[in-house]
Write a structure and sequence with these properties.
single chain; 118 residues; alpha+beta; 4-stranded mixed β-sheet; globular
Length: 118
């Protein structure tokens, strides 16, 4: 039998697939089943994003999702995630999903993922 620490030693991830980035953006605004940090997938547009008030893409293509601005000098992925009220793990997970589909990542996100956390 698993102990409590073993049973809860993982983070669940929710993925939401959409026909278009426009549909994804609209759904994030009104569907209570979509939470901040959830992963958004739009296969037809090769877009993977992260849900929040202003959903953004981690892929080079972003469609109707927001593209992120260039990071400030010295800004880390954790800093950027904190400013967007998501976690660095949300970024990393969305990027991993994009890579598995073979979708090119936003170069700015790719650079932040490659930097050491501290």
């Amino acid at each position: 039998m698993l102990t409590d620490s073993e049973r809860f030693a993982f983070t669940t991830r929710r993925h939401h697939a959409f026909a278009s980035t426009g549909n994804a953006y609209d759904a994030v605004q009104c569907d209570e089943a979509i939470s901040t940090g959830d992963t958004l997938v739009v296969l037809t547009e090769e877009v993977v994003g992260v849900a929040m008030t202003w959903p953004f893409a981690v892929t080079k293509a972003h469609g109707h999702l927001h593209a992120l601005s260039a990071p400030r000098e010295g800004e880390t992925l954790a800093d950027l995630a904190r400013s967007l009220h998501v976690s660095a793990a949300d970024f990393a997970h969305a990027a991993e999903i994009a890579r598995r589909f073979g979708f090119p990542l936003d170069p700015q996100i790719e650079a932040l993922l490659a930097r050491p956390a501290g």
